[in-house]
User: Fold this.
Amino acid sequence: MNLSISNLCKTYGPHQVLRNVALEIEDGHCVALIGPSGSGKSTLLRVLAGLELPDGGDRTTASVTWDDVPMHFSDNALFEYRRGVGTVFQAYNLFPHMSALENIALPLRVVHGRTAEVARREALDQLARLGLEAHAAKRPGQLSGGQRQRVAIARAIAARPRVVFLDEPTSALDPEMKAEVLSLIAEIKSQRRDLILVTHEMHFAKMVADHMVFLADGQILQTGTPQQVMDEPTHPVIQSFFSRVLKFA
Ligand SMILES: Nc1ncnc2c1ncn2[C@@H]1O[C@H](COP(=O)(O)OP(=O)(O)OP(=O)(O)O)[C@@H](O)[C@H]1O
Ligand SMILES: [Mg+2]
Assistant:
């Protein structure tokens, strides 16, 4: 992906959460978005996923361009835009009354217009590709947290989105399940699907990401390769963040 952002602001009431965010990513495949709690990572991800409007809405002065195609922040344009992306959030948002298979097939039918039979076949195929076929008939309540999150990832990528957004996909999981989900994300990346990932898993981010973006207090303080950002932080806020988060890692 090539991603270009300029002048992106987001305000909630009196609180300016994103302050003139500007970013240029060239030829990125996996972008890790990191930074302290409350810095605006989820908000930025939600704007990029088309789930939240920047300040100004459809008259915004913000510019977001993917591979030279600008995002339009009108309801109609965003409705269309969201069909082309996948999202996975910390709380997996699977429908509790549906099986894993139905959870994946439903958006393929309703959002992407597949027939029931084609949606079912594609959903099964996706589950099989991720080693989850044994869980096809189970409902979320019958799956472990890690399995649920892997089904949520399967659902996000089933329609072959051009970019997948993941917001702390492992934060609710115990270490073993975390490892399962992280290896699935690494696997998706190796299939050359573009990912933007918010994570606190620094070692994983270093391993899997080709670009790292550090956000603090609504502003991007540093971008570069994970090695550059983690080993040569250019700002005291970044240094102090790493000295805290890597202390017990
Ligand atoms: N819908 C909302 N209404 C009002 N304030 C919000 C809303 N969403 C987020 N905020 C505020 O915006 C700031 C940034 O929130 P955000 O969730 O983007 O942070 P974050 O970097 O993802 O943090 P964390 O690492 O804890 O998930 C916080 O102060 C939060 O309280
Ligand atoms: Mg967040």
In short: The longest helix spans residues 175-190. The chain has a mean pLDDT of 93.
